[in-house]
């Protein structure tokens, strides 16, 4: 038979060489002049474990093809070169010529527009091959090779061509093989963003949920029954991973051609052709990362695969908890830094370039995208973190969700709230979606959800982390802080936010930590008895671990907390009054509960804020003296475990929710919540530690020791 091969690289070269060695007449065509020249000078060499041989077959550039092409035309160009290949064939095919696509991706429609659907056959090719040098192709293995008619008929021409092609078998469901290859190909694209081998990327437990989810996402779109091949079985995806690892470990081709295009050849991949027609979030995230690597914004490294795994968890775990506003595909970041590759979510009240600052409000979520990052977000990117998601919050961080937006729920108990207002950030960290998230805290909005969800939540010293690019609620009391899975992650993020360099001790501290136990808070009748008992038990464990405790009467902290309302309400009204009663007012865009809270703020005389600030100034020295002789103050974080929904601040439950967290917003002292136990119903309980203003590092070191002792 006579064959013309359009695209004589890895696949086309391998098939063409086998055809030539079998005695068929073969004309090789390729767009690479060096490859064509090498074939004509020394033949086409096939190397690798399958066999070593060289064939002498003529090779031409596309412009050297004959005016009339007959016989069988094998199209083996990369998918994104299909249009160019089609133009080469336009008006050149003899009446009896047959075209066979040997490409990855669903390119049949583009080819059939020119050559006609009636003369087009399609192949599924899964043996590994690589173009190693001009004139040399490495064949790494022998995998499944199928050829079929698009309509599924078993025709004479199909059988004749299948008999001629090496390793090929005719099939009546070629589209089933192509859709299975789409799923497997999407997994290969995912693995190619790293520098891992195909087998390693499929075998690593960190990435198996991602690989399985990608395959399921693609297979769900298949209009035909996907077919099994080389260990990949659409009906048994978990088992497929094991079999594919074995198959690929037995191949001399360790990495995919996609990886070689990205990392070795530095050229475009077939991503737009193979993944572009697919729908679904995961393949979209993969495609965006591939394009970022193609643009030179990223390199192939495991951190990219870890980011894809975080996206998979975002979809599987974060969205059911109503914790996600938006995913941010292939986020820009520095190529190195102390947070290199850490996936970080951001509360959607903080500017992220290219996204509206949503504020937990549907009107704002549809607004103009931010032109630049908030200072805190810019610091995350500069440290190498992947700012990959926007997290949900209570409307304007004011204490209630907008009625059209669901409240973030608690991973520990999805029938309970994650807390407010940084509930989305807390839920994502607690669910294991990401190790850290940014939040804001005006009266406890980081530490309360951290306590409810069983994670670490830090409100740093006031002013330590910039609030530039953040929607204010009460500028005097607002803080940007961190929610994280551990104190170590919290410390790493704070170091990046502040540009400081510090480390947490890894061994036994030089001296025992001294804890000032706030006995009045433990005796507060508003504290749930079970939480009080769990907190006391945690303190007993800290004493057993060698920490020294001293009782402290925190009455002054309650007096500081009493200043919060007058400061917050006056400042919140100053911030939001233009929307509610200004010349361009549009109060209807604000949820009814939030609007009620803000309108009540309008009734507070501005002078009450001034009086509250004066009281604060007078009380601060006494608050600091509580730390004389101790390293940190210790007490409960919240008065009750996570309720079903966040109570508005003007309800009895809402009025007491922040009684233990609010004092430190008023004083400006750093405070952190560390998990310390579970209720009988499985709800997390947190312990709050506070330090002197400016001693954030000392607070984190004490918290790290407490975390170890309570773990």
Structure, described:
Residues 334-700 form the Amidase domain. Residues 4-151 form the Ketopantoate reductase N-terminal domain. It comes from Pseudonocardia yunnanensis. This is Amidase family protein. By secondary structure, the chain is an alpha/beta fold. It has four domains: 2-172, NAD(P)-binding Rossmann-like Domain (Rossmann fold, 3-Layer(aba) Sandwich), CATH 3.40.50; 184-294, N-(1-d-carboxylethyl)-l-norvaline Dehydrogenase, domain 2, CATH 1.10.1040; 321-498, Alpha-Beta Complex (Amidase signature (AS) enzymes); 514-710, Amidase signature (AS) domain (Amidase signature (AS) enzymes, Alpha-Beta Complex), CATH 3.90.1300. The longest helix has 20 residues, at 606-625. It starts with a strand and ends with a helix.
Radius of gyration: 32 Å
Runs with pLDDT <50, length 5+? none
Q: What's the domain count?
A: 4
Which percent range describes the beta-strand content?
A: 15-25%
